[in-house]
Amino acid sequence: MATVVELPVVPPPLPVGWTAPAGSGKPISSLVERRLLPAGPAYLAHVRRAVHNLTFEQHDKHAEEERKRLEALNGNGLNGEDDLGVGEEKETEELLTLDPKEWKKQDHYAVLGLSHLRYKATDEQIKIAHRKKVLKHHPDKKAGVAGDSNDDAFFKCIQKAMEVLTNPERRRQFDSVDPYYELLEADVPTAAQVTKAKDPQSYFFRKFAPVFEREARFSKKQPVPMLGSYEASKEVVEGFYDFWYNFDSWRSFEYLDKEVNEGSDNRDDKRYTEKKNKSERARRKKEDTARLRGIVDVALGVDPRIKRIKQEEKDAREAKKKNKGGVTNGVKSKEQQEERRRRKRKRRSGKRGGKGALRARRQRRRRQPPPPPPKKHGDSSVWRKRLPHKLFVA
Predict the structure, then answer these.
(1) 135 and 219 both lie in a single domain
(2) How far apart are CA 374 and CA 107, in angstroms?
(3) Tens digit of pLDDT for each residue in 136-168?
(4) What predicted TM-score, i.e. pTM, was given to this entire model?
(5) How many structural domains compose the chain?
(6) What's the CA gap between 164 and 230, in Å, rounded?
């Protein structure tokens, strides 16, 4: 049986001058008659079951079918296994009010809901995203829901985005001037930011790694060496900078060309526009090459691995000098002694056979056949002196 233990606890006395607070309660308001109306999803479900004489199981089955129908109407009717990571992106008001006449200024990936994938999106993912948008924004589908059924401007933008992204050449041109990545191109750390960071080493790899990853998509040569880690060897670091200093880019700027005025048959105008576009493409290409070269220069200047490699080479040279200093000056290495003996033998053999060698050369010269006679005047070939094989030029 449990026991009760009493503890002698004495509450502290009230402070001097304390007074009880005034009561804060209010009287209960008088009763008022109100009219209550049945509402809410639970009541609506009850009404459906009562009107259609349905059981709970039948009602749930009908609700599931209605949910699937609405998903198909809104473009969400694809199974998760067929989605391939496309997902759903929020459509902003600015996106829905795009002008199809200004299709070159639109973000084709955002129109199809592929902003999170962009150049990494596969052809299958583009098809799935296009199907979702068509099911959601097709004029025939919009006629069954609230809204203006004649407003098919965004649907035209969807079709134009699909047309660009399914054409390999046009997609590559758009990827070259992707507005999303053009904003990121300005977000490149400077040498001062790296050196002033609390931890320059980690800051360097954290900031420059995504920069080189973005630029790698333009390389004609694959795979592209990435920045790597601090422990990378000298050969790896030299190979990395050698690749990026000789970077071969496929990036082009045809997408930004000015269009020839529609209906203009003037050949001079067309030639002038084409010439202007060509010069602008060359200028942008030159600026892009200089921009990338500047990034590589900054990275090379603040790369902590360069300092580490130089220090390792300096330590190796000092260790080598230290080891050489321990050897007696009068003692030669084995290779030096062997070389010295070889030179002595060569000099002795030259002295012994000097006259004999000269006599042998004269005899060989006498045994050589005489040169052929010169050709007659008018012959196209010209007699030439007999020359050694390596110096002979036909």
Answers:
(1) no
(2) 80
(3) 888 876 655 555 544 688 999 999 999 999 999
(4) 0.60
(5) 2
(6) 41
